[in-house]
Amino acid sequence: MPAVLPDEVLIRVNCCGICGSDLKIVSGIMGCLDNIVLGHEFSGVITSTGNKARRFKIGDMVVADPTLTCGNCEFCLDGKQNLCKNLGTGGNGELGVNINGAFAAFVKIRESNVYKLSDNISFEEATLVEPLACILNGFNRLNIKKNQTACIIGLGPTGLIWAELFRLRGIKVFGVEKSEFRCAFAQKFGITICQGDESNGFNFVIDSSGQAFELGVRLVKPAGKLVLFGMSPGHVEKIEPFLIAQKNVDILGVNMDSGTFKQAIKLLPRIRGKDIITHKFGLKDYREAFEVLGYDFASRRFARESTAVKVVICP
Ligand SMILES: [Zn+2]
Ligand SMILES: [Zn+2]
Fold it and tell me: Distance between CA 279 and CA 293 in Å, rounded?
């Protein structure tokens, strides 16, 4: 049971989504502190509050921004908290990376990172607030106009959320994805699978895989925007920079949320979150939860084809 500091609250975790970054951590591609509890996309109920934490009462249904920032560095003061210079020091950092996260019965966190939910939203769907907030950090920078098109490379949970946001703005969405299962699944969201052969190009191309920079540059229209969103540390691609200059492409790098939690909570009921979540497991079945995503515990690799999209663990 974590002991809460005066400015913290204790949350009984109802549900926590498995993120692509958790998969990168368990397969050794991304780092985390030794013996840390993973999990950062969670919802739950306040069960106790520190003596200086007064914004919530016991029983409140909440989500929390898992990134604890200093609030004082040049980036924090500029509203770009995700770029905080002091992550990893002075109690700042990320839940599930260097602070114990929410694949657990209870998690504690600074009160200022916690947001109340309305009760018309389920705990399962509420786990999508965090990924949605990260996507909004990029989506808000797009300057969308009528009759534009978007193409999403990688149709996992985040790719589908990107597609939902474009749909809400009346933008036709195309998709590129290797897995046949995910292609069929994405069509239920109105995404037209094009496998990268659309000759006219797209105004917006989102690389949600983290491994398709070169393809993205090819697919984006002149004067279009290419968003690099998927995280794939160590992945290297060869590219001819001239193509980017010649097409006047804007390249946007996006990771983590940045003051977008409130907007995400407001938008969540408008996206088809329930349909993105395909599997639910109890905490003691965590092995199965990772295995259903294709993970092999013995080799620490993603060895199998998966027919899961978003998997959530519900302690
Ligand atoms: Zn995440
Ligand atoms: Zn900072």
Answer: 10
Q: Are 235 and 210 in contact (CB under 8 A)?
A: yes
- Angle of CA points 87, 88, 89, to nearest 5°: 95
Domain final residue pick, 253, 287, 305: 253
Ligand 1 mean position, distance from CA 128 (Å): 9
Q: Which ligand is nearest to the CA of 71?
A: 2
pLDDT in tens, 142-167: 999 999 999 999 999 999 999 999 99
What distance in angstroms lies between residue 273's CA and the mean position of ligand 2's atoms? Answer: 31
pLDDT tens, 15-64? 999 999 999 999 888 889 999 999 999 999 999 999 999 999 999 999 99
**What is the domain range of residue 285?**
8-133+257-313
d(CA 94, ligand 2 centre) in Å: 13
Residues in the chain predicted with pLDDT less than 50, given as ranges, are none
Residue 237 amino acid letter: E
Instruction: Give CA–CA dist 155/150, Å, rounded.
Output: 13
Which listed ligand is nearest to 21 at the C-alpha?
Answer: 1
Query: How many Å lie between the centroid of ligand 1 and the Cα of residue 41?
Result: 6
Taking the CA of 80 as reference, the closest ligand is: 2
Where would I find the H helices in the chain? 20-26, 74-77, 123-126, 129-139, 157-168, 180-187, 213-219, 241-247, 261-267, 273-276, 286-291
Please tell me the pTM assigned to this model: 0.96
Question: Is position 37 within any domain?
Answer: yes
212 CA to centre of ligand 1 in angstroms = 20
Residues 148, 201 contacting (CB under 8 angstroms): no
